Amino acid sequence: MILLKLENLSVRYGDVLALREACVEIPEGMITSLVGANGAGKSTTLRAISGLVPCSHGSLYFEDRSIDPMSTDQRVELGLIQIPEGRLIFPYMTVGENLEMGSMTKRSRKERNENQERVMEMFPILREKKNQLASTLSGGEQQMLAIARGLMAKPRLLMLDEPSLGLSPLLVKEIFHTLKKINGQGMTILLVEQNVKQSLEIAHRGYVLENGRIILSAAAQDLLKSDHVRKAYLGL
């Protein structure tokens, strides 16, 4: 089943066409990676899905239902949850309070305690530091908190914008391992990344975005073997 479909989606920032007639399908239960260089239009795509920027052309369908007229909060209630670039946790709230902020939707509020227990089992460091201010966490711990906060909302689709940004290679490996584990539990994931190799290695399907346009789409393993991807992104 296709959970989310982008049909000829375009986004403008004034006179700049940041996304050009993008066609993307996100299958349920899979990891889909959207990769490309900085400024390619990856974050714009996520913002358009979340309703944070208006689309100048095209349509969005969630479970075959148009979500074009819906506000951002309505899309969140459907289960479209975005973890933004740079984490954007609440630094002067505790870890526990940050997690509570993730469960403010109607669909997740009643299961707050169960969901919090689930994410703390997944990220034991968050249980250990539950009463600490989020600003005191390391970069890797803050990224774990951002992911956990997103999971608190009971997402149907978890969208991550550059989760490896600013992390050491060891922590990047841990974050990607965690995403694969979350997907193994049935979560559908849309992963936006500059880290092309590791992103495609854990994905089922991938799209390559350049200058606002989708130029390649295929099974992730096939993209890793693509001459263009190997030359432009893997230095091979």
Describe the secondary-structure layout:
Blueprint: E1 2-13, E2 16-27, E3 31-35, H1 42-50, E4 57-62, E5 65-66, H2 72-78, E6 80-83, H3 95-101, H4 106-109, H5 112-122, H6 124-128, H7 139-151, E7 157-161, H8 169-184, E8 188-193, H9 196-202, E9 205-210, E10 213-219, H10 220-225, H11 227-232
Parallel strand pairs: 3-8, 3-9, 6-7, 7-8
Antiparallel strand pairs: 1-2, 1-4, 4-5, 9-10
Helix pairs in contact: 3-7
How would you explain this protein's 3D organization?
The protein is an alpha/beta fold and 236 residues long. The chain has one domain (2-232): Rossmann fold. It contains eleven helices and ten strands. Strands 6-7-8-3-9-10 form a six-stranded mixed beta sheet, sandwiched between helices. A four-stranded antiparallel beta sheet has the order 2-1-4-5, covered by helices on one side. It is globular.
The gist of it:
With 236 residues, the protein is of the alpha/beta class. The protein is built from eleven helices and ten strands.
Q: Report the average pLDDT across residues.
A: 91
| Beta-strand share of residues | 25-35%
- Treating each run of at least 4 consecutive H or I residues as one helix, how many helices? 11
Counting structural domains, the number is 1
Helices and strands, in order, run as EEEHEEHEHHHHHEHEHEEHH
State the end-to-end CA separation. Answer: 35 Å
Q: Supply the helix-strand structural class.
A: alpha/beta
Low-confidence parts, pLDDT < 50 over ≥5 residues? none
Percent in helix: 25-40%
Overall 3D shape: globular
- State the major sheet: 6 strands, mixed
Tally of strands: 10
